[in-house]
Structure formats: structure tokens, C-alpha cells
Amino acid sequence: MFRVGPGGPPGSAHTKDGRESLLIDLKGYGSLLLDGAQLTVLVGLISMLIAMLLGLVGSWGKLSKSRIARTAANLYTTVIRGIPELVLILLVYYGVPTLIQDISSAAGMEVIIDINPFVAGVATIGFIYGAFATEVFRGAYLAVPNGQMEAARSMGMSAALTFRRITLPQMWRFALPGLGNVWMVLIKATALISVIQLPELMRNADTGARATRMPFTFYFTASLIYLAITIASMIFQQRAEAWASRGVRRA
Amino acid sequence: MGLGILWESVPRFLDGTLVTIEITALSVLIGLCLAVPLALMRVSKNPLLWMPVYGFIFYFRGTPLLVQIFLIYYGSGQFQEILSQIGLWTLFREAFFCAVLSLTLNTAAYTAEILRGAIQGVSWGEIEAARACGMSGGLLYRRIILPKAFRIAWPAYTNEVVFLLQASSLVSIITLMDITGVARVLAARTFAFYEFFIFAALLYLVLVYGVIWVFKKIEYRISGHLRGAPVKASTPAG
Questions:
Q1: What's the CA gap between A165 and A146, in Å, rounded?
Q2: Does residue B230 have a pLDDT over 80?
Q3: What residues of chain B lie within 8 A of the CB of A1, using their CB?
Q4: Nearest CA in chain A to B198
Q5: Residue B231 gets which letter from DSSP?
Q6: Which of A101, B20, B25, B78 is deepest in the core (most CB within 10 A)?
Q7: Phi and psi dihedrals of A214, rounded to 5?
Q8: pLDDT of B185 higher than 50
Q9: H-helix or E-strand spanning residue A46
Q10: pLDDT digits (tens, 9 = 90+) for B90-108
Q11: Complex ipTM more than 0.85, yes or no
Q12: What is the C-alpha separation between B119 and B121, in angstroms, rounded?
């Protein structure tokens, strides 16, 4: 039931590589942290992709004429934003397999399900931040002037073509600052997946801290790596915003 | 289904709820007391004042809260000797102290940034008017800028308090028995995972929307001057 996941035993694959210890001596665990950082970024990117897809669907639901779609979308954002990420991660990782087992055994079947921490983590983080992305896309859609869509429709474009050619490209400009914020919060939230033993940056820092008995050194180094990711994201966000508003004349 | 187990666990969850509220309230209050001077230093033109605060805010907003908690709770162990010598080890040994300290520093950084934006958002005309009336320095801040800034910051501050309430669930990782901690222990003991975690989620939902309700009430009270005059049911004949 409980997975004693990867991440240990340390020192086997990650021995001294000689490249580290610029200022901080990591006793040969530096490459473990870098591997973790890679996984953190990967988990962050996939979660962000899921969050953006859910956000588009969610904002469509919120703006839809269908009452069922509106209610579902509102329920999604209201509930998700009121529950801590950690509780949802634990619920998905430990709760969903047991729930499926209970339901299937009630139906007379025996199903054993073991969710992989990567899938559980990415799905949960994506699902949570999909609620935040929903609000971002909703605001961005409303920010595009209605005349743009009306003009496109009067040119004979279908609703789908109008959305793809006119609305979506202009939405990006309004959505990017909000999406940037979602990403900044999301990448930090991925640290919580360490609780379900995914060997990302936080988990690997933990492994190094335990093995070397230098917790401060390892957690501080990990925090600096997170800080570096944040700074890189800020620079990328500025570039992306400049790109998205390339058609806007500045005074 | 474990409705029976759930019912028996209600007293433990109530204890957990109290721990959650206690940690959140302490961190919010101390964090706010720290955030005001930090925000004032942040808007100062003296680089000796704003640069360290800028670094503090940047670090605490740019790194995950979990790292900050681990850095303080486990990281302090690396300096056990020094901390014992100056008599602080008894504090850092306590998970409760470390939890409140890290949450306080975290919320102080976010709140200082919110207040900075709000202080800079106070309209210049009001500051000019206050100066024209002869106010300056401390009096200007105390009477005009800070009250205005708090009103501007209130909606964003509501969000921050809600985030902190949810973030307090992380203290369960350093062994504290808040709502999440109780759910984790009971779930591991009884294997009733989804029952306990869904129950914990419901408790958080109630707390979060309770906090939002209270803060909206306060927002309504402090923004009376921004609303139109109340419409009287019957206008007196004039």
C-alpha cells in the first residue's frame, strides 16, 4: 500500500562528480539536487499544461449559456480554491485507490490500484491550478473587445474560427500576467509532491540532508535553486508579455 | 464505509481545528505587526533600509513554504551547539515554535509586498493636502497614508490570510496535529483514507469560506465612504 519510493538509497548512482562545491560543500550530493531540480521543472511544466487546458475548459464553462456547465465550473473553482493543496495530494494519492477498491469490491470485483506518485502529483497540481487558470482565462476573454468578435462573425467566420483566429490570440496578451502568477505559485507547490515520495528537488534535498546530517546546507541550497527557477521564470514572463503585446502601440 | 469511525473521530478533528486556527491566527497577527515596518522600510529611499527588505521579501516569496519550514525546523539542528549556547535551542526544538516562525516570516513577506503596493497606491493629492495642513513624517503616515493603504490592501490581504490558513496544513509534515495531521494519523491507522481526507477537506472549506465571509463584512464596514449614500425609503417632503 505505502510505497517506499525511489530517492534512496543515496550515494549509489550519485557519487562525487567533482563539479560542485563552489561555495557550499554538498559532499557529492550536488548532482542529486540537480536531478531533482530537473524533475521539479518537468513536473511543473506538465502540471501547467494540464492547468491551462482545464482553465480553458473551465472558463468556457463559466461563460457558457448552459446552466449545468456554469454550475459545474463554479463548483470546481469554489471547492478547489477552498482546500489546501496538501490535503488534495494526500486524497488523490492515498484516497482514490482505496475509494476505487471499495467501490469495486462492493460491485464484487477485486481491483488493486497503485497510483504512481508522478501521475498523482502532476494530476493533482494540474487540477488545483486549473481552477486558478479558469479565472485568468475568464478575465482575459472578457477583456477582448466584443467588436472584434462581431467583426469576425460579420466577415463570415464561424464561431470556432473566430475563437481560434481572433479571440484566442488576443486573449494571450491579457492572460499572460495572470498565467505567470499561476506558474510562480505552481512551481513552488510542486515541493509538496515530495510528501508522496517523488524524487523531485525537495525530496532529494531531504535525502541529502539525512545522509550527510547537514539539513541547513541542503535545504538552503534547494531554496536557492527554487529562487533561480523563479528568477528565470520572471525573465521568461517579461519576454513572453513583450511578444504577446507586439501588436499594441506603446506611447 | 467508515461513517462510524468518522463520527468517533470528531473530537480529535475539533482539537485539530483549534490547532489550525491557533497557528494561523498567531502567524497572521505577528506577521502583520512585522509587515507594517517592513513595508515602510521597503518604500524608503534609503538603500540601507529598502535593500535588505527587498532581499527578505524576494527570498520568502520566491521559495516554497515547505523549504522554509524545513530550513527552520530541521536546518536549525545543524546549529544546535550555537543555539544551545545562546539559549534558543529549547525554542527551535519545538515544532510549534518553528511552524509559527516560518509561517510568520512567510506571511510577513507577502503582506509587506501587498502593503507596499497599497502605500504607493495612495493618491498623491491626499498626501499633498495633508502636507498643506502641516502634517509630515509620522503623523502623515499614521493619520493619512497607513489608514488609506490598509483599505486599499484589504481585498488582497483577505487572499493572503486564506492562503496562510491553507498553507498551515504543511505543519502536519513536522508532526503537528492540525486538521491535516489528525487526518493523516487516523487514515494511516484505520486505512480509511478517503473518508478522513474528504472530512478534512470539508473542514478547511468551512474555515476558508468563514474567513472570507468575515473579511468581506469588515471590507464593507471600512469602505462606507466609497458607497453611494443609502437610499431612503421615503423622501421627506421639502
A1: 14
A2: no
A3: 191
A4: A91
A5: P
A6: B20
A7: -125, 65
A8: yes
A9: helix A30-63
A10: 999 999 999 999 999 999 9
A11: yes
A12: 5
